[in-house]
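Mods, move this if it's the wrong board.
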Amino acid sequence: MSGASAAGRPIPHPASPIPRFRLGTQSWSYFPDWVGSFYPPRTQSADALGFYSQVFDTVEVNATFHALPRESTVRGWYERSTPDFTFALKFPREITHDAQLERPQVEAPTAELIRLARRLEDKCGPLLLQLPPSFARSPANRRALDAFLELIPEDVHLAIELRHPSWAEAAVERALAARNIAWVLVDGDQPNARSVLFPADFSYVRWNRSGLEMHGWSEVQYDRGADLDWWANVLLHAPEHVRTIYGYMSNEFAGHAPASLRMLCQRLGLPSVDPRERWPQGVLF
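Not the wrong board. Structure tokens:
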């Protein structure tokens, strides 16, 4: 695409207003790989979120996909993170993969996730609804999705990752726009990767697994510069109605998510924090 950077230089900004970016990783709990590469040496898991929130201003919480946490856990997240931090909570797999949105079995866990999300107060970001790749745009699945969306209050920011390629079309974009629901933009080894739709006034990006062989998560192992150039160009030229872009990097993108995000920020012309600048004195060696 035109406007791509060379050697990671920032891509020229378009004339239209630039949305606010909130960029983070898919979870903060990568132990032990991130200790000594992102987290200071000897960091304990209980202290990880507090440090993480000094470097990034958002995180995607993958833990809620596996099981809903206790309310005390959610409040702990709120209390341990810095002001102006946001959490994006992922819907449980019992809703998306096991029941595949069918009511009435999804009603109770959906209500509970929303209740917990509200306990994050001003730190509540979008909720991520990730459907399995087998969830095609069949009449039955369309009805199930439409009925499920009736459970989501209007003030909840919802982002949907529809991984079957049959969903990537203009009619779906119009339907999502009518409800201000974000289409999840994805980079990865799945059929719907890089389907670019911007139906809502916010966008949600996930840089997922690349399919490349990785050896741990402590350092970048592949040059994904051309891919980051492509994404920077797409995001800097998002439509004017997109006010905020949330983006979450996976380790599987290139080997070490924090470093990949810093490379992306450079291309977007955004400031970024070197985590070592936040390490206490005396732990550099």
